[in-house]
Amino acid sequence: MSNKGSLEEKAGIVVFARVLTTVIDLALAITTIQLLIKQDFAIMGYILMIHELARNLATLGLPESIFYFFERITYRQKARFVGQTVAMLSIAGIAAAGLILGVSSLLPSILTEWSPEAIDQLQNVLPWLALVVLLEIPTWPASNILLALDRQKDAAWYETLTSAILFVAIVIPIVLGFGVLGAVYGMVGYAALRALGSAIWVTARLVQPHSSDEDASHIQELENGKPEPISLMEQLRFSLPLGLSSYVNKLNRNIDKVVVSVLLPVVALADYTLGAQEVPIIRVIPFAIGSVLISRFVAFQLDGKKQELLELWYRGVEKVSLLVLPLGVLSIVIAPDLIAWIASSDQADYSGAVLPFQIYNAIVLLRVTHYGSLLQAFGDSGGVLRMSLQLVALNLVLSIPATLAFGIVGTAASTLLANIVNWWLYLRRIGRHLDLPAHKVLPFRRYISILGISLGIGSVMMAIQQWGFPGMQAPVRLLTIAALFLPTYWAVGSWTRVIKQDDKAQFRRWISLTFFRSS
């Protein structure tokens, strides 16, 4: 798909899937909190963390290579290329399963603060988790294959169904009283179903191409000759840097949890697992805009139109800021009621997660664009990887002493500080490509105006929350504060002309999900 409308449609589907998957993950966390005792919740969180890390390490960037190489081969060669990709991922899945089994034997020396009972429980389920990874990893390119075949609705349904099946597979055994072991058995069933369903679904689409795909493939062969098949080494040379960067980004989101699991008791990990969460819909917005604009950035860069590129970059940042900054402040304000609503009960108190949650969501206030998209537009993929590695190092160096000194509050605060430092270094690197100082890389005047309005309204809402509705139930108070905050932001933003008419029109288009209906 080469035209701009198709690019936006493809990006919209990817964003929709990410939002939905993240929301389901959050719903899974909320549900398991309610159904499991605190120790079992911590163990389940550790299992899911290992599952995510192993999966992202083993995929090697190969799913992302689908988009790049599908445009370089004929339709008839795509089935072979898919088979080659799945074969490499199957080998990687075997390695990942072996790694999980190896980690299982080392748990007593790693989790020194955990009780022997908790470690035994974790060791009993990790072999089954290895089987899950073995079955699941070869299926990971399925959504990208469907997208690359211009099957947007198929891709959206695939993402929706696999996420929903995983949710059901974990929750139902817990509801029936089978605990963590039953949940992992459910994950095995999910992985087997996903493997079978993916094979059938992708094969069906590969053998039933659009007529336009066959025509384009035939024309390509007539005009240019049949292109050479993509070799294993060529695919790996392209995909491995992407895989490493993606894995490092995933590691960034879990390194602080690893520090807490090693240095603090299991109960502290339960609080931190809940608190170290960004509100999912907020996090995905800048990546949505980045995925739509990156092709324009590349075009401007190739044409030497730096001023046009900068203007488009500024407009994207301003649009994202109008959504991300108020929603980020709102998530900080409602944190006590949100934690009380979704987690705390007569059996467990998760009030210790509130302050880490508030600190963690202050990071959202930096996420007003997809910074890596601009570096990629200038061909600086090494810079993207360097920034990711830098953030891991900063997180690790800062979080260990902070955790030892201040517990999980120190862990969250050090994560925020690491992100602020890395953010400024990111701006400096982008500035070198744009020939600008770091303080001019973002439209800071507009950013500060939007942030100031959001913080002002947030302060008022926090006062109302504390003194206006002290006896109100947490869910009711949360909804009341949100119902007051958002219209107030809209009204004040419109009155101060921070929110303009074209901003309002754009917002309506963003929330209409037209990409899903038209795909």
Describe the protein's architecture and organization.
- The chain has 22 helices and no strands.
- The chain is an all-alpha fold.
- The chain has a domain of 244 residues.
- α1 packs antiparallel against α13, α2 runs parallel beside α5 and α10 crosses α18.
- It is globular and about 60 Å long.
- The two termini are 12 Å apart.
| Structural classification | mainly alpha
How much strand content do the residues show?
Answer: under 5%
Number of helices: 22
Provide the succession of SSEs: HHHHHHHHHHHHHHHHHHHHHH
Rg, alpha carbons: 24 Å
State the major sheet. none
What is the rounded distance between the termini?
Answer: 12 Å
Q: How much helix, percentage-wise, in residues?
A: over 70%
Shape assignment: globular
Query: How many beta strands in the DSSP annotation?
Result: 0
Q: List low-confidence stretches.
A: 1-8
Q: Return the average pLDDT rounded to an integer.
A: 84
Keywords:
single chain; 519 residues; mainly alpha; disordered N terminus
Provide the fold topology.
Elements: H1 4-35, H2 38-58, H3 62-70, H4 75-110, H5 116-136, H6 142-148, H7 152-175, H8 179-207, H9 211-224, H10 232-252, H11 255-263, H12 266-275, H13 280-302, H14 306-333, H15 335-342, H16 354-362, H17 371-377, H18 381-434, H19 444-468, H20 474-495, H21 501-511, H22 514-518
